[in-house]
Amino acid sequence: MTNKLNSAINFAHENENRFRDELIELVRIPSVSTDVEHKGDMQKAAEYLANKLKGIGMNNVSIMPTGGHPVVYADFLTAGDDKPTVVIYGHYDVQPTDPIELWESDPFAAEIRDGKLFGRGTSDMKGQVMASIHAVEAWMKQGGMPINIKWLLEGEEEIGSPSLGKFIENNKDLFACDFALNPDGGILAEDLPTIPYSLRGLAYLELTLFGPAGDLHSGQFGGAVLNPANELARLIGGMHDENGRITLPNFYDSVVELDDEERKELARLPQDEAFYLEQTGSPKLWGEKGYTPVEHTGGRPTLDVNGLLSGFTGEGSKTVLPAKAMAKISMRLVANQDPIQVKKQLIQYIEENIRPGVTWTLDEHTGAKPSLTSRDSDGVKALAKAMETVWDVRPLYYRVGGSIPVVGQMMEILGVDSVMTGFGLPDDNLHAPNEKLTLGPWYKGIDTLIHFFANLVAN
Amino acid sequence: MTNKLNSAINFAHENENRFRDELIELVRIPSVSTDVEHKGDMQKAAEYLANKLKGIGMNNVSIMPTGGHPVVYADFLTAGDDKPTVVIYGHYDVQPTDPIELWESDPFAAEIRDGKLFGRGTSDMKGQVMASIHAVEAWMKQGGMPINIKWLLEGEEEIGSPSLGKFIENNKDLFACDFALNPDGGILAEDLPTIPYSLRGLAYLELTLFGPAGDLHSGQFGGAVLNPANELARLIGGMHDENGRITLPNFYDSVVELDDEERKELARLPQDEAFYLEQTGSPKLWGEKGYTPVEHTGGRPTLDVNGLLSGFTGEGSKTVLPAKAMAKISMRLVANQDPIQVKKQLIQYIEENIRPGVTWTLDEHTGAKPSLTSRDSDGVKALAKAMETVWDVRPLYYRVGGSIPVVGQMMEILGVDSVMTGFGLPDDNLHAPNEKLTLGPWYKGIDTLIHFFANLVAN
């Protein structure tokens, strides 16, 4: 095993330039999933990956229709029943490039400057997909994989993976596994390997209050009817208490609290108050009393207004008493909150607090369950050990504030956790002009994955 | 005097058809002040009125430039220094006609159907201006007016009288008077003569809260920064207490409370809860505890959100933590509140309550002082007596919920109260398709004004 591992690492080092050039080939296919004009490119990117997987020796390679953009499937299941089976997730679609005029080089030229590969999708996440393929190739050259793997490479992540849930549902047996590897994350700095082990969930709702039948003259009727904009503000204003805690009934009941050991781990993260002030540009930080910003954004639930609209919003003044008022309200959830329960708690809060002068509707936009992968699970331990070997430092553990729907879907449909990884950096300009991938940590990432596969079967 | 009065009334009755036809002539001039295409018609309407005033014997008739549409001035000041001097206010401009397709007859054809004159401006307020001119003509036929009068007929009321304040300021001496007569009001029903003796003032402000430097991802940063939309809602939510009272510091200090006798008068008004429910279409009325809807809308101050805007307001969901949030907030004021003081109270409330995670701006859009003309003043008593004579019922006293800027300007610049009157009805479709004037009460209005002038000098 150690011989094969060393040989796989050597292979990877010897092939760094070819690995990089293959990534460049993939980046040059403008697979923008939002844009129907790129439908052909989506197919081309899927075919590129299918050919590549075939080339490195994967079995059952196929481009599977989903109703939307296809999923590339492949597997290699010869490691034996006693070895773990891992689904390697990835997406081959990329964000649009606008505003195109802010790019310093053609987003699909994949230009290298100063050790960085610039181009749309380099970091998010063609680089991560190719790193996984390269790591597997390095093992295949040693006679095969130490574990069983299945590939699930989708083409709709940047449009919210509309087809994926149903696709996994329909192919539940095909994707049966012990856990998933999801390299759609990143590390915090070139010298700080990081393991994201938790994602927040989401409950995104739209609350509309209806008062008078139509907009009223605020002089003629103001004072005698409940103004839905005032009432909406009052309701929202009451959703937090003075300590920044959310007041929906039973909201915190199922929240897994951070324990001292976890808080100590999180405190190792370099993101201090100054970091958050600088990143947000807020005049002052504010959050639930008793927690640090890293804990606020990763380990605690939130309730944020994402949008407000009522009455007259143009220039100047119009003395209208609006007929309705709308707020988009979303809650970031942490384990073990459930978006369906949280919606019920919001409904209960509204019912208990709203005044009778308005009626209301609550529409649901999205829901995603939070996830929390144990830092003591085999997958996370194997990844941590691999990172420590390659970087020679103990990795940081990190809770991600956002949601990755596919992680929740795998949990929900396949009943498996996801081990999150990825080797991009915070300044990679994801979804922005001049996206880039720094090649140094990317090569280390390939090494890390090679070690990771070995660690999963080490005794 | 009684002979002259009877003779003036007889003259008016004998000339009803001619009076109506002259109104029709004026309505047929499409003097839409908002529309530059009607600039010539504005001039024509001003000339029509100037000629008419000259024709009935007024002195110093002139069309005075204002920078915007002109003011028609005239006077007749021969009643003697011991007699009151009254400025008769009016406006000759009208609202636009859209949606034109909803009119049942050409808005400028001035068609009579079923005792009603249909046309733009018939009720608001060419009919009221002509009623005043006809009443004065009836007196002039008796050898002259019993009081001194000055005319101020502007052409910009429907666009907010932008030039008027400065014009009155520049002509302060010209318009010196004991009080103003403003017939831009109306009565509540054909058989219910009504005297509006109070107008609410207005302080219209725009509050914007600024949080992060730009919109943030609500997953990445939600929980660690103050969301300006949440905070705006909390601030607005705190501006009323559970009894519907406004919580700005010292807000009610200068409010003239309704006394028992006034509340008894207001209780005579036919507008009960059912009326307000029907007019507003609200599911339930709501207002400051301890007051009736008529008192809410006329006698008590309000704080209404007129507009809300923040973050993402399109279809669906976007997980944005908005960089800013805006609310248009206006307060209707009652005597003796002052919009400048009230703005200071709002600022104090914000300063005392806002959290340090946001900065803010407060822009002022409009301010208007409330007005309250004593029901015991000579002008109101003369009007009440005139109405009782003509209608044979004691008039109702009414507090108007809206603001009429010119009333505040006359108070501020000339130091005089306005006696409000007018003979339109609530269903006259002001500012809407099929505006009309019911001729029966309009003729009574002319009689009322003839009596009113007499009553002002009766001992």
Give a summary of the structure in a few sentences.
The structure is a homodimer of 459-residue chains. With 459 residues, the first copy, chain A, is of the alpha+beta class.
Overview of the structural elements:
The structure is a homodimer of 459-residue chains. Chain A is α+β, with helices and mostly antiparallel strands and 459 residues long. In chain A, the strands form five sheets. A six-stranded mixed beta sheet of chain A has the order 1-2-6-3-7-17. The model of chain A has no long low-confidence stretch (mean pLDDT 96). Chain A contains 14 helices and 18 strands. The first copy, chain A, has two domains: 2-199 and 370-455, Zn peptidases (Aminopeptidase); 203-255 and 301-368, Alpha-Beta Plaits (2-Layer Sandwich). At the A-B interface, β9, β10, α6, α7 and α9 of A face β9, β10, α6, α7 and α9 of B. β11 (304-311) of chain A pairs antiparallel with β11 (304-311) of chain B.
CATH architecture of the largest domain in chain A: 3-Layer(aba) Sandwich
Number of domains of chain A: 2
User: According to CATH, what is the class of the largest domain in chain A?
Assistant: Alpha Beta
Low-confidence stretches of chain A: none
Distance between the termini of chain A: 11 Å
Q: How many helices of chain A?
A: 14
Mean pLDDT of chain A: 96
Structural class of chain A: alpha+beta
Q: Quick one: which chains have the greatest interface?
A: A-B, 84 and 84 residues
* Largest sheet report of chain A: 6 strands, mixed
Question: What general form of chain A does the structure show?
Answer: globular
The rounded Rg of chain A comes to 24 Å
By DSSP, the count of extended strands of chain A is 18
Oligomer: homodimer
Looking at the structure, the CATH topology of the largest domain in chain A is: Aminopeptidase
Widest sheet: strand ordering of chain A: 1-2-6-3-7-17
Q: By CATH's scheme, which homologous superfamily of the largest domain in chain A applies?
A: Zn peptidases
Assign a percent range to the helix content of chain A.
25-40%
